[in-house]
Amino acid sequence: MKKIELHWQILIAILLAGISGWYVNQIIASGNSNPTLLGISILGLFDYVGTLFLNALKMIIVPLIFSSITVGVAGIGSGGNIGRLGGRTLLFYVSTTLAAILVGLVLINLVTPGYSSNGEPVGEMLALDQSGEEIANVAEGRGPGDIAKVFLSMVPPNIFKAAADGQILGVIFFAFLFGYFMTKLPKEKSESFLSFWDSVFKVIMKMTEWIMKFAPIGVYGLVATVVAEAGFEAVGPLAVFAITVTLALLCHVLIILPLLLKFIGGLSPSKFFSAMAPAMLTAFSTASSSATLPITMDCVRDNVGVSNKVSSFVLPLGATVNMNGTALYECAAAMFLAQAYGLDLTFGVQFSIVFIALLTSVGVAGVPSASLVAIAVILGAVGLPMEAIGVLLVFDRVLDMARTSVNIFGDACCAAIVARLEGEKTNLSV
Residue 115 pairs with which residues in a beta bridge? Predict the structure, then answer.
């Protein structure tokens, strides 16, 4: 019997959670504040299952972020890759990722899906437990309130304490330094070190994939809890958020990247879309940049005409560090939840979210829904409870598929533009 794909499992779980949650919500509305099944609280059971899944995600945050960034930085710095080709690639990746984040930030600020039509935060509609005042107090104490504090938090006096306390910015910065200076060791030592951390990263990736197998159960518990406590009122603001994110992704993939293709790369955007269609459709269906990588490389080499020298360096690196769609979503999700809690979104807070989204997008595993880990990092850094992630799961799977397509299209654009800047001729010149 053919196994049901994970995205279908998650969608089925969301549907069942909606039905179960609505049924429990009706029981609560009838006067029974704590419905039970065989003596067990149904709401407590939903919450237990969802919390267990979230705890599993939290468990892998530090090792995943540290190992992926260490390996990525060390890999770039080894083998003579830091040069003109590496510099152009990294500049493109950082620039387009930052552009994507800013697009998401602008649209979230314009649409404000975290506020209702009367200007009130939608946290209560989403059954978010803590009040805006409580969140503001936490954010003031934990999250960087201004730009200076952002950079100060990057250099913790004790890296182990920073990891234990969830100060991920410090962990990220240490990982960058660790990976870079690893390449300064003698070749035999740096290679053995890199091999070790690459093995650690692959183990954590396997753990992430294993945890994501339980995503349908975790999603069921989290979504059912929201629906049971808030009813279907929560769907409205979440739908507005999903539409806002979709519009931001479309702006990036239909406006910003095509403009770069045409005016920097001298390539036809329409022909490029046609050439990359197989890879984008595969990315949309699998929601995995890693799984799509072989098809992306085939499309870029065979359909676009990029050399193996450029594609074999740019694309695997991009599958690790260039997550345009993911970074956009991380920023938008954090902003949405901050709005929902009624948090005062000062320039310092917004800068923090943008900065952390840019850094954490580097460490996102190329597997379905792995960005939930990065969102947890951002929420913790600005003082928002990680449990709030649960409300995002209603539309997360569809948005995951869309942002993965944007991720691989951004990688392909970079490969084509870098190839043109290196003097190569392609099949899609204007």
Answer: 121
Could you report the per-residue pLDDT of 74-106, keeping only the tens digit for each? 766 555 545 677 788 888 888 998 999 999 999
User: How far is Cα 284 from Cα 7, in angstroms, rounded to an integer?
Assistant: 11
CB 75 within 8 A of CB 404: no
**Cα 61 to chain centroid, rounded:** 12
Helix, strand, or coil here: 121?
A: strand
Strands 36-37 and 40-41: antiparallel
Domains of the chain with CATH codes: 77-179+232-421 (1.10.3860.10)
Task: Give CA–CA dist 415/96, Å, rounded.
Answer: 13
Measured between its terminal Cα atoms, the distance across the chain in Å is 49
Task: Please write the tens of the pLDDT for every residue from 150-201.
Answer: 567 678 888 888 777 766 667 777 887 888 888 888 888 888 888 888 888 8
Residue 128 reports pLDDT greater than 90? no
Q: Which amino acid is at 208?
A: T
Lowest-pLDDT choice from 74-88, 135-149, 225-239, 288-302? 135-149
- Which tokens in the block code for residue 289? 């940049």
The number of beta carbons lying within 10 Å of the beta carbon of residue 401 is: 18
- What are the respective helix, strand and coil percentages of the chain, to the nearest 5? 75, 0, 20
**Distance of alpha carbon 424 from its chain centroid, rounded?**
33
Q: Which residues, 6 or more positions from 161, have their beta carbon under 8 angstroms from its beta carbon?
A: none
Distance CA 413, CA 420 (A): 11
- What tokens were used for 219? 């999603």
Tokens 């691989």 belong to 408
Helices (H) and strands (E) in the chain, counts: 19, 2
Residue 118, Cα to own-chain centre: how many angstroms?
30
